[in-house]
Amino acid sequence: DTEVTQTPKHLVMGMTNKKSLKCEQHMGHRAMYWYKQKAKKPPELMFVYSYEKLSINESVPSRFSPECPNSSLLNLHLHALQPEDSALYLCASSRGTGWEQYFGPGTRLTVT
Amino acid sequence: AQTVTQSQPEMSVQEAETVTLSCTYDTSENNYYLFWYKQPPSRQMILVIRQEAYKQQNATENRFSVNFQKAAKSFSLKISDSQLGDTAMYFCAFMDSNYQLIWGAGTKLIIKP
Q1: Distance from A63 to chain B by nearest Cα, in Å?
Q2: What is the pLDDT averaged over residues A39-48?
Q3: Is the CB of B101 inside 8 Å of chain A's CB atoms?
Q4: Is the pLDDT of residue A76 over 80?
């Protein structure tokens, strides 16, 4: 089973809203990732969690706040976003940080 | 800095034909991993195939195979007997020594009926 699930599939939010994206995997993977993807571009790495600890933060603005409550769950809390933050947000997981990554279906975020 | 180049922005072939997508990369490392991912219009990024640089044998996965030329730093993907469901954006990716993926710009592949 190589399934990573993400909710919601679509999200529309205003610039003053607070919302959260959720990612879940039950493959026993110990590394989880958040990526941002603009149309027709490759994914851009935002955050990496390894063994539930934040190991990489790619200079992402503080309006994005990741959280890893346990080894199966990864959240991305959103606050005071800008229209340019509209994108597809992908979650991925891997056995460890040196292994192939498996991606979820993504959340399409629109900021109005 | 490590880079990955996919020189074909878009390709289209007839169903059942064989198609090869090119990928070159630049690195000074000796041990690394290379990947091909596909992203259909449904948008889920799917792992197609993986190659370890220390392995001389080219990886294969059913209709998908790679031609890995380490000295030339080339990693092309061959799709045999192409199917309509192969229509997707294909990304080549290199895993660096920090275990981060360096992505190519992608090739949009269209399979025509």
Answers
A1: 23
A2: 95
A3: yes
A4: yes
